[in-house]
């Protein structure tokens, strides 16, 4: 009886610690997916305009470009904390290679930032200006996905 | 005795030979482009469409083409496959007219994996907004992103099949002293009546 209550007390007091660790992981994962979705929404707008599936609208294009620029400047290290790799937590497509090649991973995000620089301005002035920006940005998506994202 | 004599016969028609070498060239080139090519995969897409055209030709040729190109000559009884396997280790040319029972299975497998590969490629969405398959929006994003993984699996299968194909050619050349490359270039092959 005593053992059970001790165990219960230990479990109850320890619980917040576990919960806390879990929260960090959960938050990073959720934020990461949100970050990628935000990129996807804005990239979707630009890609749609480049293909002519969405009618070109200079203001909307520029907003999407500027959003990607802002996201490209965001330091993502907090979104890729240890313990959030595929296999360590459910619903993660982040390959362990990220944590094995941190410098290269950071560089690939820097490449996105570089490609995104000035995107808000570059997509102004006509539908024909959107395609090159999408290609430059999309190329950096692919390079990073190829090495660091699980295909599923 | 005369019946056992090998004769030189025109087995592979010109269209089939052109198909074979074009397909070999395009598949190898497109595999390399897929793995090591530019991030904007425009050329990979165009070679892929060309492979679709070649496969379409092959499917038609399998129905209306000459005897050795027909699908009917690709499907052998399982017993002839095991029989062929038993004799395969003999150090002598097979002199087989057309696709032998085992080689026919390889042809079927390679055609199927290539159909798989163009199919998954057309609907694949790698979520990079630049290399999205032209039919990806027809299948829904769930299947489209999965198709991207299936396409990568297909690339691995193609590598395995190509290496096995080359190994088989070398096996015939070295072990069985039978050149299978020249007949695919000239159409003429030493065969024995079965």
UniProtKB/TrEMBL annotation, chain A:
Q: Does the keyword Electron transport apply?
A: yes
Q: Does the keyword Electron transport apply?
A: yes
Quote the cellular component terms of the Gene Ontology held in the record: periplasmic space
Q: How is it modified after translation?
A: Binds 1 heme group per subunit.
Q: Which GO terms describe its biological process?
A: electron transport chain
Alphabetic keyword roster = Electron transport, Heme, Iron, Metal-binding, Signal, Transport
Q: Where does heme c bind?
A: 141, 144-145
Q: Which GO terms describe its molecular function?
A: electron transfer activity; heme binding; iron ion binding
InterPro entries the UniProt entry points to: Cyt_c/b562, Cyt_c_II, Cyt_c_prime
Q: Where is the signal peptide?
A: 1-21
What name has this protein been given in UniProt? Cytochrome c
* Species name: Paracoccus alkanivorans
From TrEMBL, chain B:
What GO terms in the biological process aspect are recorded for it? respiratory electron transport chain
Q: Which UniProt keywords apply?
A: Cell membrane, Membrane, Transmembrane, Transmembrane helix
- Gene Ontology molecular-function annotations: electron transfer activity; heme binding
Parts of the chain that traverse the membrane: 15-33, 45-64, 102-124, 157-175
Its annotated compartments are: Cell membrane
Q: Residues in domain Cytochrome b561 bacterial/Ni-hydrogenase?
A: 12-187
The protein's matches in InterPro entries, at most eight in alphabetical order, are given as: Cyt_b561_bac/Ni-Hgenase (IPR011577), Di-haem_cyt_TM (IPR016174), Hydrogenase_cytochrome (IPR051542)
| One Pfam family this sequence matches | Ni_hydr_CYTB
Name of the protein this chain belongs to: Cytochrome B
Read off the lineage from the record: Bacteria, Pseudomonadati, Pseudomonadota, Alphaproteobacteria, Rhodobacterales
């Amino acid at each position: 009886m005593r053992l059970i209550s001790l165990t219960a007390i230990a479990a109850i007091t320890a619980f917040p610690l576990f919960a806390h660790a879990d929260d960090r992981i959960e938050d990073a994962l959720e934020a990461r997916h949100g970050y990628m979705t935000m990129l996807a929404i804005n990239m979707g707008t630009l890609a749609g305009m480049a293909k002519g599936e969405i009618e070109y609208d200079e203001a909307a294009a520029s907003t999407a470009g500027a959003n990607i620029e802002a996201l490209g400047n965001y330091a993502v290290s907090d979104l890729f904390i240890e313990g959030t790799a595929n296999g360590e937590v459910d619903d993660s497509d982040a390959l362990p290679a990220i944590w094995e090649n941190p410098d290269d991973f950071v560089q690939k995000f820097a490449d996105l930032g570089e490609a995104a620089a000035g995107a808000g301005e570059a997509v102004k002035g006509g539908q024909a200006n959107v395609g090159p920006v999408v290609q430059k940005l999309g190329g950096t998506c692919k390079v990073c996905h190829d090495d660091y994202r699980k295909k599923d | 005795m005369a019946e056992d004599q090998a004769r030189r016969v025109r087995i592979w028609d010109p269209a089939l030979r052109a198909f074979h070498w074009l397909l070999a060239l395009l598949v190898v080139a497109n595999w390399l482009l897929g793995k090591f090519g530019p991030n904007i995969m425009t050329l990979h897409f165009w070679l892929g469409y060309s492979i679709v055209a070649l496969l379409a030709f092959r499917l038609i040729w399998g129905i209306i083409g000459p005897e050795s190109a027909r699908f009917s000559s690709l499907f052998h009884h399982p017993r002839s496959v095991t029989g062929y396997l038993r004799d395969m280790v003999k150090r002598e040319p097979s002199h087989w007219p057309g696709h032998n029972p085992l080689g026919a299975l390889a042809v079927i497998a390679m055609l199927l994996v290539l159909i798989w590969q163009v199919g998954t490629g057309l609907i694949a969405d790698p979520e990079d907004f630049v290399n999205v398959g032209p039919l990806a929006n027809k299948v829904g994003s769930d299947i489209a992103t999965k198709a991207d993984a299936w396409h990568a699996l297909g690339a691995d299968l193609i590598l395995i099949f190509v290496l096995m194909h080359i190994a088989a050619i070398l096996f015939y050349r070295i072990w069985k002293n039978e050149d299978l490359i020249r007949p695919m270039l000239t159409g003429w092959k030493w065969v024995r009546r079965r």
